[in-house]
Amino acid sequence: MRLLWGLIWASSFALSLQEPRLLLFSPSVVHLGAPLSVGLQLQDAPRGQEVRGFVFLRNPSHRNAPCSPKVDFLLTSEQDFVLRSLQILPNGADSCGLKSLRGGPKIQLVAQSPWLKSSLSKDVDTQGINLLFSSRRGHLFLQTDQPIYNPGQRVRYRVFALDQKMRPSTDSLTVTVENSQGLLVRKRQVYAPSSIFQDDFVIPDISEPGTWKISARFSDSPDSNHSTQFEVKKYVLPNFEVKIIPGEPYILTAFVVIALHHGLAVFQDRRAEQLKQRVETSISNANSFLGAKASAGLLGAHAAAITAYALTLSKAPEDLRDVAHNNLMAMAQETGDKLYWGSVISSQSNVVSPTPAPRSPADPVPQAPALWIETTAYGLLHLLLREGRAEMADQVAAWLTHQGSFQGGFRSTQDTVIALDALSAYWIASHTAEDRGLNVTISSQGRNGFKSHVLQLSNHQAQGVEEELQFSLGSKINVKVGGNSKGTLKVLRTYNVLDMQNTTCQDLQIEVTVQGHVEYTMAAEEDYKDYYDYENQGDSESLGFAGDDPGALSRPVTPLQLFEGRRSRRRREVPKVAEEQEARVQYTVCIWRNGKVGLSGMAIADITLLSGFHALRADLEKLTSLSDRYVSHFETEGPHVLLYFDSVPTSRECVGFGAVQEVAVGLVQPASATLYDYYNPEHKCSVFYGAPTKSKLLSTLCSADVCQCAEGKCPRQRRALERGQMEEEGYRMKFACYYPRVDYGFQVKVLREDSRAAFRLFETSVVQVLHFSKDAQAAAGQTRNFLVRASCRLRLEPGKEYLIMGLDGTTHDLKGQPQYLLDSNSWIEEMPSERLCRSTRQRAACAQLRAFLQEYGTQGCQV
């Protein structure tokens, strides 16, 4: 005990030998018109000491002219810390010469007191620190109604004005508009009473295309200039080319014959009899032309089906109809008891691409392309007109019925309309006044016993019967059909999967590669450090902002300085190398097709660029202007580049263009690219591509916490006041502070649950912030998202509160807020209800939980 008192007396004696001093604390930047909080602290002063004085701001480069009013202060040995507020008004900035400063202007925070000169033996009675001065009054945001305009079009724009604290500002604004040559075409001095200013103007018809700019600034602050840009371009009609396939030049004639025949019904007036005769003569001449081509065997399957239908519909001479019919039936293909027409170039060719038949009745029916469905539908229309409902019509209708989707459609609008027309005609031909019906019994032997469902249909029903029946996985489904009619039974089998593989690329193929340099933000390349890591700072910097360099790092010595140090701490920026001033990459897009089935026409490649990049228009124009004509047309809209190809070759062909980075990026996510048939968008191939392989950021995605959390063990949920844990004293504190030592601790209320790809997302509202590391913006009432793998059992019930602790992640949600992945290193505990805590059995456990929340929330980890 004597030794302890001796140490205390020695330390007190050493402290009494230190000289008293006055410390100043403030943010490192002073904004024009914004209040500045200043802290003054009297340190190591003897008992009974009083210090009176003034604190103000002045310009050292303008004869130390004062820039703000002087505010008095009083410090004593008992009350050794005070807060004062200073403000530089616009007229004060003019009088002290601040607006004439450029290139990092500095201003001085000064404390003036006679005590500084008398007690500290100084030559002057002032003490100051240097701060940065910013004349930026606030924040301005500009927005136009669209990114691209044509000459003569009206441009509508809005300006949002906010002050330094992101509150609405009602200051005067100056808005200017410059054309593509940089000439000022419009200037307005406006006043926005509600912090929002709206205006519009018309682009002159004679304007040159290019980039226009709208700028806005606070009228009394030249340095607060903000701008937005938009493109003015003249609309150019895309250079589309129509190609006639040599083997199918007669389809248009058959289409016209069908249209003219249906149009004969409008000639009811006798005065139009002459015109009707001219139309009938044209139909007769066209029929002779089509019959001659059919006799020569020059028609493919598609043209033959339309020709046969046109000749039968228009009641052409019997010899022409027979030739067309025989020509069409020579191209028919059979699969089981079904009949259809596929890809046949002509009746004289043996090149046939049949649809493969199912190996067994349990196998799904192979999906035929749109052209085959349309051809078969015209064939069915022809057979119904020629023979009525016969055996061949039944076989064709059966094939068409099996090709329909569960919802009733087919591949595209064109073939769906023709197929439904043909099936409707078949139903009309098959309809009878007799009572027809079907009794369908669907049964299965499952885990819960035998299940049976009976469906009854009749020809008097306006529509079919749709039932949602559920059967156990792996059980056999028996279907028993009875009655005197025919019907169609469609079964949709659904699966719950975590991640779908890319099954879109069957025949079409696309590949996108990116090479070059990508600029990344510092936050993406280095790990965050703890705010309290100041052990390596020198003693000379441990006194706060006492030096001349306001940007120097220092150790906070008061709660105010600790708060300001956290808020104003910024990451160092590495200067760019001269060769890397403009980050550019080269895109290579390769397309080809594997199958024998070609496209119905043009193909389009839709490429989504990586975040922060825009394509070089000059490179894209070269693809369309060169003699080789790699691309017939291109479009750019936002992050998308659309390349129009006349056809897709069977061999690999590649095109390339450059892209320039506009802004540095953080975590680069893969982007998508899609190649699809212009006339049949369902025929497509979608792939993903990433940034250059040398990117450090891609390895971060695969090696940082996100991948570890996604591949780690599932989290374990602890129920409210879980038994077995109460016997271990301080088990929550050990988890939080020793192993695994968490980065955050929140008490949250679950709002909703959602599915995101292979994850389950829980949107929560923060009830209490116990601890944070990176998430410095977390506060009660804010929303935070927690994710867990969908394969894990963890379920958080909406409406309930939970205590969640764990490790920080590296990803953010759409609002830019941190989101957390839950794994085996996460603590998830359901908060007990008040009713549960009132029970005698749980009082001690609830008190232990409340004690942990109080201790961890106020003191954190004492290790």
TrEMBL record:
<feature type="signal peptide">
    <location>
        <begin position="1"/>
        <end position="18"/>
    </location>
</feature>
<dbReference type="InterPro" id="IPR008993">
    <property type="entry name" value="TIMP-like_OB-fold"/>
</dbReference>
<dbReference type="Pfam" id="PF01759">
    <property type="entry name" value="NTR"/>
</dbReference>
<protein>
    <recommendedName>
        <fullName>NTR domain-containing protein</fullName>
    </recommendedName>
</protein>
<keyword id="KW-0399">Innate immunity</keyword>
<dbReference type="GO" id="GO:0006954">
    <property type="term" value="P:inflammatory response"/>
</dbReference>
<dbReference type="InterPro" id="IPR048847">
    <property type="entry name" value="C4_MG1"/>
</dbReference>
<dbReference type="InterPro" id="IPR018933">
    <property type="entry name" value="Netrin_module_non-TIMP"/>
</dbReference>
<dbReference type="InterPro" id="IPR050473">
    <property type="entry name" value="A2M/Complement_sys"/>
</dbReference>
<dbReference type="InterPro" id="IPR008930">
    <property type="entry name" value="Terpenoid_cyclase/PrenylTrfase"/>
</dbReference>
<keyword id="KW-0732">Signal</keyword>
<dbReference type="InterPro" id="IPR001134">
    <property type="entry name" value="Netrin_domain"/>
</dbReference>
<dbReference type="Pfam" id="PF07678">
    <property type="entry name" value="TED_complement"/>
</dbReference>
<dbReference type="Pfam" id="PF22661">
    <property type="entry name" value="CO4A-B_CUB_C"/>
</dbReference>
<dbReference type="Pfam" id="PF21145">
    <property type="entry name" value="C4_MG1"/>
</dbReference>
<keyword id="KW-0395">Inflammatory response</keyword>
<keyword id="KW-0391">Immunity</keyword>
<dbReference type="GO" id="GO:0006958">
    <property type="term" value="P:complement activation, classical pathway"/>
</dbReference>
<keyword id="KW-0964">Secreted</keyword>
<dbReference type="InterPro" id="IPR054587">
    <property type="entry name" value="CO4A-B_CUB_C"/>
</dbReference>
<keyword id="KW-1015">Disulfide bond</keyword>
<dbReference type="Pfam" id="PF01835">
    <property type="entry name" value="MG2"/>
</dbReference>
<keyword id="KW-0180">Complement pathway</keyword>
<dbReference type="GO" id="GO:0004866">
    <property type="term" value="F:endopeptidase inhibitor activity"/>
</dbReference>
<dbReference type="GO" id="GO:0005615">
    <property type="term" value="C:extracellular space"/>
</dbReference>
<dbReference type="InterPro" id="IPR009048">
    <property type="entry name" value="A-macroglobulin_rcpt-bd"/>
</dbReference>
<dbReference type="InterPro" id="IPR036595">
    <property type="entry name" value="A-macroglobulin_rcpt-bd_sf"/>
</dbReference>
<dbReference type="Pfam" id="PF07677">
    <property type="entry name" value="A2M_recep"/>
</dbReference>
<dbReference type="InterPro" id="IPR011626">
    <property type="entry name" value="Alpha-macroglobulin_TED"/>
</dbReference>
<dbReference type="InterPro" id="IPR002890">
    <property type="entry name" value="MG2"/>
</dbReference>
<feature type="domain" description="NTR">
    <location>
        <begin position="714"/>
        <end position="861"/>
    </location>
</feature>
